[in-house]
């Protein structure tokens, strides 16, 4: 799930890794630098995200991540699957499961 949350955070704007860690943590998801950076590396290798280096006003350059077309497609596929899954689980949790 974390992978797709990262893709969702990148859908509108590029971000650097620590920014992603902060936003995911604020949303209540377990996210540490030790979790996010390997995930971002894997997403880059799978060509779901691209990277660029940008100067930082407060230190060394930062690596920014943005979605590729392939990443947008993966996010769209997941969003459809998640919606169907959530609907099914809600149906059962609300006591409308079939017997």
TrEMBL record:
Gene3D superfamilies: Winged helix-like DNA-binding domain superfamily/Winged helix DNA-binding domain (1.10.10.10)
Signal peptide: none
Organism superkingdom: Bacteria
Pfam families listed in its UniProt record: PadR
Transcription regulator PadR N-terminal domain span: 6-76
Alphabetized PANTHER family for the sequence: PADR-FAMILY TRANSCRIPTIONAL REGULATOR, TRANSCRIPTIONAL REGULATOR RV3488
Protein's recorded name: PadR family transcriptional regulator
Record organism: Ornithinimicrobium tianjinense
